[in-house]
């Protein structure tokens, strides 16, 4: 349930409503926008009466929220959220590009990629140190050593950084080295991990599960925010369908659907969704055109010899050409890049 206050409602009216709700043992979430103030209510709503609430001074109306996710719901928070990651922001005004290798392989490799992606306009360096690989015999990541290289690259280039975490140990290590945690597709419904990420204090990028509906995905985001961490960004990375021409099927319609349902930013990963480097540029452009808040793109100094995801990784030149081509698309949707 949400309580919508009249425009220009006074603080004392707002606080009277909040006190009434909290005295009944429910939790409130205040969203003070430029035009409208909304008080979101989480908890057992049988304990409060809609009619009582509607009769409070300067309450405009009381609206039920039928969805199971509340804190991520745009009804709770009509303004689009802007999420700070290191020294950059993800939100409605700009296009944020996260780029880097699938896996951190060596310090030299990471440093050369960091400089190249920065030159082409990326502001966040991605690099996996814990790799959830399909086969147990594939390269599993450098773990804490890889995180140390991420920190070194951040210090050298000034880029903000993101790394995937797969366990509580990985979270405890990552918080010492990077600016944002990534929860990968395979862990989207690992609810224990989501809660721990919520308690980490770092912003979290939550990728869509391979077979997850948008509703399941939003409920997963709710787990993180319910721990007191409002800094969540969603990443569409393709879903499993019957089609085999691409690695996954990129569900771009998730972008406008999510813009309606949630205030959280949504970025698109055209690398894991297509799995083929030559399809990355067209899908990146389409993502910007449908108003995604950012992109995650895999870039490698030598894709043919990458330890993971080489076939979908762009070379430095391909990435540079793409970011140049994205600029007119950003202008069309009024985003700076
Ligand atoms: C990745 O970003 O390297 C990754 C493993 O992505 P996903 O979880 O989307 O498969
Ligand atoms: Mn990858």
Architecture blueprint of SSEs:
Layout: E1 2-5, H1 11-23, E2 27-32, E3 37-42, H2 50-54, E4 59-63, E5 83-85, E6 88-90, E7 96-100, H3 107-119, E8 124-126, H4 144-157, E9 160-164, H5 168-174, E10 180-183, H6 191-199, E11 204-207, H7 214-226, E12 232-236, H8 254-261, E13 266-268, H9 270-274, H10 277-289, E14 294-298, H11 316-332
Parallel strand pairs: 7-8, 7-14, 8-9, 9-10, 10-11, 11-12, 12-13, 13-14
Antiparallel strand pairs: 1-3, 1-4, 2-3, 5-6
Bound molecules: phosphoenolpyruvate and manganese (II) ion.
Manganese (II) ion is lined by residues 102, 272, 298, 308-309.
Count of alpha/pi helices: 11
Helix content: 25-40%
What does the largest sheet look like?
A: 8 strands, parallel, barrel
Please report the first level of CATH classification, the CATH class of the largest domain: Alpha Beta
Binned strand content: 15-25%
Structural class: alpha/beta
Distance between the termini: 38 Å
Rg from Cα = 21 Å
Oligomer: single chain
Side-by-side strand order of the widest sheet: 7-8-9-10-11-12-13-14
Shape: elongated
Mean pLDDT: 97
Low-confidence stretches: none
CATH topology group of the largest domain: TIM Barrel
CATH homologous superfamily label of the largest domain: Aldolase class I
Structural commentary:
This protein has 337 residues and is an alpha/beta fold. The chain has 2 domains: 2-63, 2-Layer Sandwich (Alpha-Beta Plaits), CATH 3.30.70.1140; 83-332, Aldolase class I (TIM Barrel). Helix content is 35%, strand content 18%. The site of phosphoenolpyruvate (PEP) has 9 residues, from loops.
